[in-house]
Amino acid sequence: MSEINVTLVSWGNEVGEVPVKLEILDRRLRPIQQRWVGAKSRERFDVDPGLFVVRASLASGSQFQKVVNVADQQDAECSIELHELSPHESHEWAYFTKPIARRSTTLLSDPVYKGAWFRLWRRETDGTWLEHPLPPVEPLSLAEDGVSCGFRTPDEALYAVQVGGPGIPWKFAAIPSTYPVMLLMRPVSGPAGQVHPLEVVVSSDHWRMEALLSLMQRGDTDKATDFAKQSNLAEELLFGKVQNTAAAAVGGYYLLRIGDVDRMHHWASNLANWFDWMADGPIIHAWQLIMEARRSQGAKKQNMDQARERLLSAAGRGFPIYTEGLRLLRDGLLLFDRRSKRKDPEIRSALSEVGAFTAAADWSSPATTFTGERPDAPTTEAPMGEPPGDGPRYYLYDVPIKAAVSEGALTDGEVLTANLESGPVTVRVTGGVLETEDGRTFTGTSEVQRAVGDMFLFSRQPSAGPQLYESLEQLRIHY
Amino acid sequence: MEMLFERDDASGPQTHALVIGVGGYRHLVGGSDPKTQVIPQIGVLRQLTTAPRSAVDFADLLIETKDAWHAPVGSVDLLLSTAPNDVDFTPPAAFTPRPAGFDEIQQAYNAWCERCDSDAGNTAIFYYCGHGVEKEEQYLLTEDFGKSPNNPWRGAFAFDSTLLAMRARKAQTQLFFIDACRKITSSMKDHTIVVSPLETPDLDDPGCERLLVMRATAAKETALGPKKGVAYATQALRRALTGDAAVEDGSGWVVRSATFADKITVILGMIKTDQDFEGRCPCHVTKSAELLRIDHDPKVRLEVACTPEKATAHADLTCERIVLPGEPPAVVHRQSGQPLRTDVDAGLYLAQATFPNHEFKKGQKQFGASPPIFKPRLECAP
Predict the structure, then answer these.
(1) What is the pLDDT of residue A241?
(2) What 3 state SS string does B149-198 have?
């Protein structure tokens, strides 16, 4: 007997707990051993001598493999460089766990992302939505190919992030507020009008739950079942609802997806009753009731009445955190609408409201994502431009000069200089633009970066007040 | 009622398919009985040449693979409508398909449900290619759509509600493939659309355990296909079911609903290069099911190139299967000056890059090639 020692190499601080399926395949590519491990693991597999493929599969759908030749009575080392998947170690969590877009040939410094912004919304107890300041951010990574940040919302409520810009259709993504939240906002390319130019990847730091969610979202229920079975994960998530409400929802969605309602017990009902800010609980409970009714004629009438109430209650709670919930809510309402021969006005009204979300939704995203101006007003034709009002917003990469002046980061008439490799450069702030000595004008920091040099290398002349880069950073997502 | 295929020796669980291709729309522009439509943007809907060809291609595929299915194919019913000017189209030999009008589809659906209900082990397959729109749910348009311009929707059926109803039926494995658009026009948004399903959802049965729903396009988007050809999503469907979505499960190559869902968008990208973005071909899978087995090593598309990329222009690339002593020698695939693109059987391979003018150092890599596509990169230092 010999051994294959597999080392998974990843660098991100967050990803040690991210699950990876490791398989040993024989030379006919038949799986002979497999187990789920963490993304920084070192694992030993006992094998007979021969040629093997070591394959590592991530919940994002990415796979790595190496061929290993194992001699008799000898150990073979196999190192799999998972980190190669991500351009930055601070983005690894997203590339490992989320089905993110394959193509990205654009950068946040490109003109389409000029003035692209981000803001946070919170649904109040009376159902209104208000813009909310971004809580302290940690960690943060600002790069041209994506901005990654983490934060924790101050309380458990329905929160959503919104991105937009003069060239970016406004888009919302729900966030699981019961956890530290991780966000990656990255430029993506694809056929115009079919692919939103800014991908928003949302995650909690419960990596096993996130992996289960991604596997379900991708339709890979074989791997989801295999993974969940490993540790009764779905029940563990649902049972732990007091600690982790969003994770409980994912556990519930998984059990519904595979039709295993017996394992849900009364937990879904509690999830619906105890957390009245979240639509996912009543949706899960409604479908548990519907599925139970299908099996037991005795429970039918009572179950169906309660399921109807649950769905209406969910429709009154904004929108579910997860796309799976949006689909189930739409399907449940359709079911009752058809059963009532479209004569139940409450169901009709709820279906119409939810229909606005489903029409504007991005169904490929695990977290509920939709276009629109406000989180309570989804629209298929999304607005673009600067958001109205003076609520808290943050630029992703490019800072418009006009905004920098109106926010006090720059003063009209002031002179900025930089000693760049190409030589000293002087620019003047004038009328909401930057003007070079030779008469070129720029409306945003990215334009300056492309044509002259990194805006953050400039300083004020004469030196006064806070450093220029500090002033500009305050307008972007910052620590 | 004549079906395209009906197994003679039917016993035990079977796969029963209802395949619908609507390319001819009698009452729309270019149809045999065009009517002026009241809702303006309905007037822009045209005849389709891809739909009947796609439906026939899918029906043919089912017959070609009839014995490979986990539940062997027991029946294939095919309804087709073609545009009056689509004279090149030829229906399957010795078969006169029924037209895909609402009444015919309803009748075929009812008969199909009966066949599917005959055994809980059955697999039910529903395939539709034609015009579709989406508002509260996806609506699929039949041949007689637009017959009553004041209420054109009488010639459509509500797909998602039909799906909810069908799920309550006995066949425990159900597959739905919808190759149709999901766009909605502003005038459709403004009008109340009342469309009936082919069956009203009920809750009298426990519901199917294993469901796969594939739509050719994301919400709000258009399904695509070449004129007088097979729609891209249906091409991907064929590739997926004939091996591209197969995995080795330890006892052979098998296409499962989960592997199908996992790979279909990548497969679509192999057919139409810019269409492999996330969510392009959305699938919904409940408990995964074994669909069919592939009795040979499936094909894998290989694209071998060098890292750095510029090295490929100088390289002689080779790729060959790794064989054991005593096995027949492997075919060596070769390419110079550009990436080596070839289709090979799934298995273990060795790819090498050599440089006759020594611009880069030799690179080589062993790898396992699994469907649908593998792109090994050979590191070649300058």
Answers:
(1) 64
(2) CCCHHHHEEEHHHHHHHHHCCCCCEEEEEEECCCECCHHHHHCCCCCCCC
Angle at B212 between CA B4 and CA B46, to 5 degrees: 60
Instruction: Give A401's contacts (C-beta < 8 A, 6+ positions apart).
Output: A410, A429, A432, A433, A434, A442, A443, A444, A445
Instruction: Give CA–CA dist B211/B221, Å, rounded.
Output: 23
Instruction: Please state at what angle helix A323-339 crosses helix A280-295, rounded to 10 degrees.
Output: 50
pLDDT at A206 over 70: yes
Chain B residue with CA closest to A364: the answer is B279
- Give the model confidence (pLDDT) of A292-344 as tens digits: 888 776 667 788 899 999 999 999 999 999 999 999 999 999 999 988 988 99
Distance from CA of A137 to the nearest CA of B (A): 29
Amino acid at A114: K
Find tokens 């800010």 and name the residue: A277
The token pair that represents B182 in the structure block: 């999901």
A27 chain-B contacts, CB cut-off 8 A: 322, 324, 347-348
Q: Do A355 and B136 touch (CB under 8 A)?
A: yes
Contact B125, B75 (CB under 8 A): no
pLDDT per position as a tens digit, B157-167: 999 999 999 98
Q: Is the pLDDT of residue A471 over 90?
A: no
d(CA B314, CA B285): 46
State pTM to two decimals. Answer: 0.94
Instruction: Note whether A377 contacts B: Cβ–Cβ < 8 A.
Output: no
- Say yes or no for a CB contact (<8 Å) between B184 and A380: yes
Q: Which residues from chain B sit within 8 angstroms of residue A194, using beta carbons? A: 218, 221, 277, 280
- pLDDT over 70 at A115, yes or no: yes
Chain A partners of B290 at a C-beta cutoff of 8 Å? none
Selected residue of A221, A291, A340 to mutate for chain B interface (largest B Cβ count, 10 A): A221
Cβ atoms of A194 and A172 closer than 8 Å? no
Separation between Cα atoms, residue B349 and residue B346, nearest integer Å: 9
DSSP B315-363: -EEEEEE---TTSPPPPEEEEESS-EEEEEESEEEEEEEE-TT-SS--E
Q: Which of B146, B234, B222 shows the shortest CA–CA distance to B182?
A: B222
Q: Count the Cβ atoms, other than its own, within 10 Å of residue A266.
A: 10
Instruction: Give CA–CA dist B180/B224, Å, rounded.
Output: 8
Q: Is a pLDDT exceeding 90 seen at residue A420? A: no
Average pLDDT in chain A: 91
Q: A62 contacts in B (CB within 8 Å)?
A: none
- Is A194 within 8 Å of B259 when comparing Cβ atoms? no
Cβ-defined contact of B277 to A101 (cutoff 8 Å): yes
Contact check, Cβ <8 Å, B261/A290: no
Q: Is B137 an interface residue toward A (CB < 8 Å)?
A: yes
**A194-198, A453-457, B7-11: range with highest mean pLDDT:** A194-198
Among B136, B157, B166, B345, the residue to mutate for chain A (most A Cβ within 10 A): B136
ipTM (interface pTM): 0.93
> Which residues of chain B does A335 touch, with a Cβ-Cβ cutoff of 8 Å?
164, 201
Q: What is the CA radius of gyration of chain B?
A: 24
Tokens standing for residue A235? 């029940």
In angstroms, rounded to a whole number, what is the distance separating the alpha carbons of residues A231 and A244?
17
**How far B94 CA lies from chain A's nearest CA (Å)?**
39
Cα A88 from Cα A39, distance rounded (Å): 16
Tens of pLDDT, residue by residue over B301-354, are: 999 999 999 999 999 999 999 998 888 889 999 999 999 999 999 999 999 999
Q: Does A301 touch chain B (CB under 8 A)?
A: no
